[in-house]
Records
---
Amino acid sequence: MNARWLARAAFALMFASAAVLIGFADLASLAMVAAGAAAACLVAAGGYWFLAHRGVVRWLALGLVIFVPVAVLVVFALNHLIWVAVVSVALLVLAAGAARLALTPAAAGTGMPFREVPPPRRAFLIMNPGSGGGKVARFGLKEKAEALGAEVALLEGPGVVDVADLARRAVAAGADLLGVAGGDGTQALVAGIAAERGLPFLVISAGTRNHFAMDLGLDRGNPAACLDALTGDGVEQRIDLGIIGDRTFVNNASFGAYAEVVENPAYRDDKRGTTLKVLPDLLSGHRGAKLTARAGDTTVTGPQALLVSNDPYELSDIAGLGRRARLDAGTLGVVAVTVNNTLQAVELLRGARGQGLTTLTASEVVVDADAPEIPVGIDGETVMMPTPVRCAIRPKALRVRVPRDRPGVRPPKPRLDWATLRQLASFRASPAGTV
């Protein structure tokens, strides 16, 4: 089915959803449907009140979040409208799916280019046995890498190992490739050294979340498959590196609420309790530094949370926030969240791009604050940095070696652009060159 017919199917399904409501519900019942929409806003507001307050208000908000959906279901059931609501919502979900499929061809990219390169002769790999719940041992990564001719250094034993010094000494000894099996923070440290020396870098998806590996299209379920890049089946890609102060980052640098929460000493032992305890002060501005971010001609004042990423994240929906379609766009992504009242919180939670959400791209971002230093989450590791903090991009600074045969990066979900969808669905003759 081509894009035009998918767009027409999307509109047909939306009309069918409305027809079900009108055909099987009287005027009073339609009012209850409107009440259901209002209830959704109340639940979103209740969620914000739960996070932004303590004591009685917090527990009343939790009660609201639980009670309102139950009350709506009871009212619908008493009026024998449960099936009408289910069918109508199902048709709307199908309509949204058809709309996204119709818009996908325009959103799909060609992927990052690669080039053929000979395999390394003296690969040096750093592996953290404790990362990802013991994936290094579980997948036999050390033994498999050594069988391919690589030298492996394990981060184990007493004391803290200086990973950067370890990588530099390996380069001085003649290593022609650096690689890491570990978390994204360690990946970023060694990637910076590889870029500095002009060496290729190998990512082995042995961390817990492996966000960097995901955006490179690597197999996160089988980290041993990443070692295929050491053979003749490997190819090389040029990707960007983020710079913050004198450090590199491969994913993002976060400021504000997230960094403040993670920096709290109690967070490691009680993540949920610490977050709920600290958030009210952060959201109300009574805790943490007041931030100001300058990106190009744009200034964002007082955001509660700020994310600066090595290439922009996909923002077509909340689920897309953790994924980047490309790592070679040569620009920083910026997402700033500023919530000053309940209305902004409701708009943000329902996905609206109102005053509470700022998204843009820039080659440089400067974050200042009313404090001499602030906590910054750099690829998941929190450090204290003096203000102002400067973030920049180094386009295509890192040579990454990846297996030729890998899962790849899923195309980004397109934003539901109703004007474009309406043009696609039109029965008028399309201009030359369009679908």
---
Amino acid sequence: MSDVIIVALITGGVTLTVNLLANWSSRKKDAIAQAKRDQKLDDQIATMNRKLDEHNRYGDKIGNMEKAIVRIDTKLETIIKN
């Protein structure tokens, strides 16, 4: 083989290797960034679920207060009637 062909093959091999390494590095960085975004989203969902649970407990408390008010009203009615 001539020297020109050998130099072209070496140059092509080095170029291919550099491109493969650059792509691998880029994919790794993208995967890390995606993992961070996923973690942030998971944290936001957990926070929203916690707030929703807290909100639902207020609904239960209000329901209990309404029942207590009804009992008080019935007791007052019996007291007033007597």
